[in-house]
Design goal:
Elements (H helix, E strand, L loop, with lengths): L3 E6 L11 H4 L4 H15 L2 E6 L3 H14 L2 E5 L8 H8 L5 E5 L21 E4 L4 H18 L1
Parallel strand pairs: 1-2, 1-3, 3-4, 4-5
């Protein structure tokens, strides 16, 4: 199984650290990428890190991951609650997928309690801040290693 992992980030995460820091914290998306790349090196994973405010770009990256990756870590942000198209793209993947949310979506507005992505995700991490990305990468690395054994 490939050791390439796509880390995909949805709308407004480009504003991480600036937008609602009382909810999302002060770390930027560049900080998250740096931390993911450092951890990936230790885990012997290769990261493809992307962010978009456009649903179709996220879908295109999921399609690309199908051809070369061993898994996806996705923070779909607001698309979590609205995108059947992203769910359909993820359903076409035959590797592990982990959904990550920086905030605890279950302590927020009721519309945030539903996730289309969770219908496909092998695991969901919410409310652990940006550390959730690292936990998802660790689990994904373990699954890739287990599959190779």
């Amino acid at each position: 199984m490939s050791r390439i992992v796509y880390v995909l980030n949805g709308p407004n995460l480009n504003l991480l650290g600036k937008r609602q820091p009382h909810i999302y914290g002060h770390e930027t998306l560049a900080d998250v990428e740096r931390d993911c790349l450092a951890l990936a090196k230790d885990l012997k994973l290769e990261i493809r890190f992307h962010q978009s405010n456009r649903e179709y770009e996220i879908i295109d990256w999921i399609h690309a991951a199908r051809e070369e990756a061993g898994g996806i870590v996705i923070n779909p942000a607001a698309f979590t609650h609205t995108s059947v198209a992203i769910l359909d793209a993820l359903n076409a993947c035959d590797f592990p997928i982990f959904e990550v949310h920086i905030s605890n979506v279950h302590r927020r507005e009721s519309f945030r309690h539903h996730s289309y992505v969770s219908l496909r995700a092998d695991g969901v991490i919410a409310g652990l801040g940006t550390q959730g990305y690292g936990l998802a990468l660790q689990r994904l690395a373990r699954l890739i290693d287990d599959k190779k054994s």
